[in-house]
Amino acid sequence: MLSILSIGDVAEKVDLNPSTLRFYEKMSLIPKPLRIGGQRRYESNVIGRIELIKIAQRAGFRISEIQFLLNGFDSDVPPSDRWKAMAVNKRMELEEKILQIRTMQNVLENSLNCNCLSWDECFKNIQLSMEVKNDI
């Protein structure tokens, strides 16, 4: 049998603010709780769902992606298949970001050697040094 927890109890167990739980509820990430005397009362199994949300956030998933992960698939699609489908897309997104960050690092690295007196000269030197680096 599931135990019933107050919003404060759940927040403490998952190390989040009660306002975060209310936000998750509003965004349909967690089920609407029972109301007893006007106060939210959650079933204890909500803790596992919140921990999953936290893991997904650490993996870089946005709230909208987590919503889709939890609620956007047909009910007959197992959680592992949902996670794999979402993880493949997220991994490709991260690879693109890694390339973007490397490009940014190269631009900054090349600009640190700049002693130019004008923006035009500076731009040309940075661009030239990047072309040389890309050819290597």
Automatic annotation (TrEMBL):
It comes from Desulfofarcimen acetoxidans (strain ATCC 49208 / DSM 771 / KCTC 5769 / VKM B-1644 / 5575). Keywords: DNA-binding. It comes from the Bacteria. SUPFAM superfamilies: Putative DNA-binding domain (SSF46955). InterPro entries: DNA-bd_dom_put_sf, MerR-type_HTH_dom, MerR_fam. Residues 1-72 form the HTH merR-type domain. Pfam families: MerR_1. GO terms for molecular function: DNA binding; DNA-binding transcription factor activity. The keyword Electron transport does not apply. PANTHER family: REDOX-CYCLING DRUG-SENSING TRANSCRIPTIONAL ACTIVATOR SOXR (PTHR30204), REDOX-SENSITIVE TRANSCRIPTIONAL ACTIVATOR SOXR (PTHR30204:SF0). The keyword Lipoprotein does not apply. This is Transcriptional regulator, MerR family.
